[in-house]
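step=predict obj=Aspartyl-tRNA amidotransferase subunit B n=148
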Amino acid sequence: MMISSEVDAALKTAMKAHDQAATSCLRMVRAALKNKAKDLRRELNDEEEIACLSTLAKQRRDSIDQFRKGGREDLVAKEAAELKLIEQYLPRQLAEEDVARVLDEVFDELEPKSPKEMGMVMKAAMARLKGQADGKLVNQLVQKRLKG
């Protein structure tokens, strides 16, 4: 079942349950998916839906960091609840050890010699991970390996 169908079903359930927070978040997710499809002038495939949701999740993580720095715990809680709901539709996130294993394979194939080749390594790694790992984590692990 496509993610957009699951979101629509969850939205109906949230509306019937009068869950304002979930309804609001799911409407935002549905709108983002529909806008992306409208931009592409076609239906989204699963990979594109995951990419769209990954973007929304990243935005929530960034907002949480900023609100924490600003001492706005009320907004942190709201964004965290939205992030949790969005993550339900994303593939399970890999643990750091699993990401390291994927990076081992990428490094064995590409054999990068210097930090200048980071872009090439990141492109290959993110293509393999496809929404299963946060780009920040992958970036940190790649930097560490290229420096060390």
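step=describe
The chain has two domains: 3-87, 96-147.
step=end
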